[in-house]
Write a sequence for this structure.
């Protein structure tokens, strides 16, 4: 069993209205000093087999095909 | 300027229909060997000042009040 964590974030320069809304909400809750918030997604994936190389290749392919929109998003895969 | 990453994940035992949908989609894309997928959220927060202790306390408070629903979600704060 291999566990991996994939973190998908918007590329720099891509507008993030959700992050802006969170900034506004934090400000309304009187949190000061927040410069910027950007929201992304995290996927925790459990793979049945124990072949690390194959798991990493598979997960990169999953990101390219399904989990991330590589036009506007970056992804990072960490085996844990 | 302090940058922090907050990762919010569903607690164990909480149903994750979004993760189940991703499992189904991966299976439809012929990825085999995927045991489980769970989806969470990531927030990249930039804080204006340089006081690490205050930043960490503030971000924990933001998580408790806004970013995470602590009934069903866990959060982890990493200063980067």
């Amino acid at each position: 069993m291999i566990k991996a964590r994939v973190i998908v974030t918007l590329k720099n320069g891509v507008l993030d209205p959700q992050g802006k809304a969170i900034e506004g909400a934090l400000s309304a809750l009187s949190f000061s000093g927040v410069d910027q918030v950007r929201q992304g997604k995290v996927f925790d994936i459990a793979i049945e087999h124990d072949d690390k190389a194959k798991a990493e290749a598979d997960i990169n392919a999953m990101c390219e095909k399904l989990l991330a929109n590589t036009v506007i998003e970056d992804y990072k895969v960490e085996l844990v």
In short: Helices of chain B lie at 17-28, 52-67. Chain B has a mean pLDDT of 96. Strands of chain B lie at 2-10, 34-47, 73-79. Chain B has two helices and three strands.
